[in-house]
Design goal:
Elements lengths: L7 E6 L28 H9 L8 E6 L3 H7 L8 E4 L5 H15 L4 E6 L3 E2 L2 H17 L4 E6 L10 E9 L6 E8 L4 H9 L3 E11 H11 L1 H11 L4 H5 L7 H4 L9 E6 L3 E2 L4 H12 L4 E3 L2 E4 L5 E3 L6 E4 L4 E5 L4 E5 L6 H10 L7
Parallel strand pairs: 1-2, 1-4, 2-3, 6-10, 12-14, 13-15, 14-16
Antiparallel strand pairs: 4-9, 5-11, 6-9, 7-8, 7-9, 8-10, 16-17
């Protein structure tokens, strides 16, 4: 399916500054600028996939000012006028509202796909096919919002889920369903129930929508944000107006409030990871390579299994007689933890803050 219409645009969301993959990912060097699964950064891999869906001049990057230079360095094909920069970080709700506002004036009848810059995808062709279908479907049904749902492979408690409802359309492998409900991160028992039920998909946070429809939904469900966006659309200084926006995610303020008739989902067989923790990165690499341990840099492993070791090539890391560890060595910090505790690294980040070590974050 060809999607090279002039009103189709992809926006790569690259403004996050998460530290869940500390000490490699930090506020100044977040994971989208890291090379975890290939010799390219996650941002570069995302851009390469987007290039196969729309022309280069219809790819934009949403981020913040402090990442401007790094983005332009990694993506030399991106002109500065295709950087949609937030004056300050305010969550995906205001960010997507700002994207819709800016592109509605630049692309008449714009259909926009917002995709994450920091996900790993093994079978890119499946992602490309699903995104093409989603964008074409919304271009033809501008009153709908589409999400791409991923067929779950494990009972993951760290992800949100989508419950499919009645069928919307499509045929063969390109079936499309209404979204019956969005489900928050479940407990283990509930996640196992979701895994066994074909109606449940992982929510990867990929959204496709008409710019004008999104602005209409924001006006209906989030009038305070709508007023801010109208100020910007009317020429008010973006920094001054945007600073008034609440820090909110798009799901609770807009997506979850839409009627079922306005939400559709495209199930996709993407082999995917949001690389939310060191353990999820290990799982992705294990599935890809069929290995029991992974080492990057100068590493030596003996009588050990299930370890993920990241070195910095300045010294050798020897791992002997231990299992299921994460070891990450950087110039100024060394992390050693069990893989099953990797999701709790926020506790360590909080402790570093309490000790006044913001320089490490």
């Amino acid at each position: 399916m060809e999607t090279r219409s002039e009103n189709l645009a992809i926006v790569i969301m690259a403004g996050g500054s998460g530290t869940r993959l500390w000490p490699l990912s930090r506020k100044n060097t977040p994971k989208q600028f890291q090379s975890f699964v290939s010799n390219k950064t996650l941002l570069e891999e995302t851009y390469d996939r987007a290039r196969q869906v729309v022309p280069a001049d219809r790819i934009f990057v949403s981020s913040v000012e402090k990442y401007r230079d790094r983005i332009l360095e990694l993506l030399p094909d991106i002109a500065e006028d295709r950087l949609l920069l937030e004056p300050s970080q305010r969550g995906t709700g205001p960010a997507i509202g700002l994207i819709a506002t800016l592109l509605a004036t630049r692309l008449s009848g714009a259909t926009i796909a917002t995709i994450a810059s920091d996900h790993a995808i093994e079978n890119g062709e499946a992602f490309i096919a699903s995104l093409r279908l989603a964008m074409q479907t919304i271009a033809e049904n501008t009153d709908k919002l589409a999400v791409i749902g991923i067929n779950p492979t494990v009972a993951d408690t760290g992800l949100g889920y989508i419950r499919m409802g009645e069928e919307f359309g499509g045929e063969g492998s390109e079936r499309i369903f209404f979204v019956d409900a969005f489900k928050e991160k479940p407990d283990r028992k509930t996640a196992e129930i979701y895994l066994a039920d074909w109606q449940y998909l992982w929510n990867a946070g990929y959204f496709v929508f008409s710019a004008e429809s999104m602005l209409g939904w924001i006006a209906e469900h989030s009038p305070a944000l709508s007023d801010i966006l109208k100020e910007i659309r009317d020429g008010a200084p973006i920094g001054e107006s945007y600073a008034k926006a609440e820090n909110e995610a798009i799901e609770p303020i807009i997506v979850e409030k839409l009627p079922v008739s306005s939400r559709i989902v495209i199930p996709s067989p993407i082999q995917w990871s949001d690389i939310g923790t060191w353990n999820s990165l290990f799982d992705f690499l294990a599935h890809r390579n069929g290995k029991k341990s992974f080492g990057l840099g100068k590493t030596v492993e003996l009588e050990s299994s299930g370890n993920l070791v990241y070195g910095n090539d300045k010294r050798t890391i020897a791992v002997f007689g231990v299992d299921d560890l994460v070891i990450v060595d950087t110039d100024d910090a060394l992390l050693v933890t069990r893989r099953d505790r990797a999701a709790d690294i926020k506790t360590l980040i909080a402790e570093l803050k309490d000790r006044g070590r913001e320089d490490l974050l």
